[in-house]
Amino acid sequence: MTYGMTIAALADPTRRLVLEALKAGPLHVGALAQTLPVSRPAVSQHLRVLSDAGLLTVRTEGTRRLYAIDPKGADDLRKYLDSMWDDALAAYTKAAQDKAAGKDRT
Amino acid sequence: MTYGMTIAALADPTRRLVLEALKAGPLHVGALAQTLPVSRPAVSQHLRVLSDAGLLTVRTEGTRRLYAIDPKGADDLRKYLDSMWDDALAAYTKAAQDKAAGKDRT
DNA sequence: ACTTACCGTAAGTCATGGCTTACGGATTCG
DNA sequence: CGAATCCGTAAGCCATGACTTACGGTAAGT
């Protein structure tokens, strides 16, 4: 049930901007905050949420802290979407078949 | 940018319960509300959000309204996750290669 | 050792949204 | 036509969370 935290983390637009900024490669908090429309502490708080959700990895480098996207951070969410919409599609096609078989009135 | 609404819709636990209940097939609002821990108007409001996000389809049947999962409702979100994490993975492997090539200290 | 740079956390403010009760419109049946 | 059922919407309450400023702690440089 960890995909719940993942979705909650991705639900915030500013956090998605953080991920966009990190798409190209790792950045430290200061550089990240300069590209974003919020203050540095706000960025820190968002990085906390994203890290807790397993979407980011951290690496301390001197006085800097480098954040990077965790490549397998969205796996659970993907699985959730797959299972959910697989079942939904199955029910959908089944309903269509039943309708066609039961009373095929044009 | 429509995946933003999709994520926002999926971010609420009650709305995910709605989707779980609709996985097996279409239901009307009353039946849906009985299975959920909130009132019927609350369910209506959630159905509104999910419909606006393109995750549900509606079909009026007499005085009932049947809601069902839209099989292609999560496509945009999937594409977003794919592109995001493809780029992230590319940056990740590239960084690993650069590090290995630049200074391959064991 | 002192100063500087970088960062996380605490405290407080304010907007967002999820829930409830109350109400009104639409459809079906006697 | 009148009664009953089903449902969406309005209004209001309250918790959550995103943001800011202020502060403290750690690492590097002189």
Folded structure, characterized:
The structure is a homodimer of 106-residue chains. A three-stranded antiparallel sheet of chain A has the order 1-3-2. The first copy, chain A, has 106 residues and is an alpha+beta fold. The model of chain A has no long low-confidence stretch (mean pLDDT 90). Chain A is 62% helix and 13% strand. The first copy, chain A, has a single domain (3-102), classed as Orthogonal Bundle (Arc Repressor Mutant, subunit A), CATH 1.10.10. In chain A, a hairpin with a 2-residue loop joins β2 and β3. In chain A, α1 (3-10) packs antiparallel against α4 and α3 crosses α4 (40-52). The radius of gyration of chain A is 20 Å and the shape is elongated. Chain A has helices at residues 3-10, 13-22, 29-35, 40-52, 75-102; strands at 27-28, 56-61, 64-69. Chain A binds chain B through residues 4, 7-8, 10-11, 13, 16, 19-20, 22-26, 68-69, 71, 73-74, 77-78, 81, 84-85, 87-89, 91-92, 94-95, and chain B through 4, 7-8, 10-11, 13, 16, 19-20, 22-26, 68-69, 71, 73-74, 77-78, 81, 84-85, 87-89, 91-92, 94-95.
